[in-house]
Design brief:
By secondary structure, the chain is α+β, with helices and mostly antiparallel strands. Helices cover 39% and strands 27% of the residues. The strands form two sheets. The chain has a two-stranded parallel sheet. Strand 1, helix 1 and strand 2 form a beta-alpha-beta unit. The protein is elongated, with a radius of gyration of 15 Å. The relative contact order is 0.24.
Length: 66
Amino acid sequence: MPLIEVTLVAGRPPEQLRALITRLTEAAEAATGAPRGNIRVILREVPAAHWAAGDVTIQERDEEQP
């Protein structure tokens, strides 16, 4: 049973998240031959203030850009 876990910065519209689930499911089905009903997808949304690279959060980076 394939399990796909994706962590994203929060803020995408529900339609975009739904499309991601569909495409990930299709890719796993094609790559592994697993039945669609056995494929699990988990999306974890993280606030921009809780995700950092190089000691700068995504929120801070976005606030600094014009």
